[in-house]
Write a structure and sequence with these properties.
Keywords: Membrane, Transmembrane, Transmembrane helix
Radius of gyration: 42 Å
Oligomer: single chain
Shape: rod-shaped
Largest sheet: 5 strands, antiparallel
Strand order of the largest sheet: 1-2-8-5-4
Strand content: 25-35%
Number of domains: 2
């Protein structure tokens, strides 16, 4: 069944709908105003910050044991100490290979060698030291002048930050 409205009823429905739209529009206007008021308290800014980085200080390597006495073809373990003068922990990445210098007694250079050591274990704390064992090997046919000599082994090490 279909019901038809007369002109007066149509006018009443339209008036009610206009009132509803007016109320809805007012509510939306109030909400929008509140949003603008809230947004008025928000702010942003820009600028810069400054900080500095430290400068790496080179470590030193020193021998703290000479190991067992060497003879032709023998191998001995000696210990070196690597210090970390930095304010952050470091890891020894490697200790380079080395060959002995010529001695004052006439023993030729490279009579004793020490192989490289990659990634020795552990870290060195800031302003601290750690010991590392190294292997020294005497050639199988050293010069006779090498008897009773002390061998100086120049060493290098690469260290990397172990922070974080």
């Amino acid at each position: 069944m279909v019901t038809f409205l007369d002109d007066q009823e149509v006018e009443e429905v339209m008036t009610r709908n206009r009132k509803r739209l007016a109320v809805l529009g007012g509510v939306l206007l109030v909400l929008a105003g509140a949003g603008v008021a809230f947004a008025a308290y928000l702010s942003s800014g820009s600028g810069t910050g400054t900080t500095t980085s430290s400068v790496a200080v080179s470590s030193t390597i020193s021998s703290n044991s000479s190991g067992a006495q060497l003879y032709p073809g023998s191998t001995s373990t000696y210990t070196v100490t690597i210090n970390n003068p930095n304010t952050y922990p470091v890891k020894v990445v490697n200790i380079g290979a080395s060959a002995s210098q010529a001695t004052a007694g006439g023993c030729p250079a490279a009579t004793v060698t020490s192989p490289a050591v990659a990634n020795p274990t552990g870290t060195i704390a800031p302003n601290a030291s750690s010991n590392y064992p190294l292997t020294a090997t005497m050639v199988t046919d050293p010069d006779n002048t090498c008897q009773g000599q002390s061998f100086t082994m120049p060493l290098t090490a690469q260290l990397a930050s172990a922070a974080g």
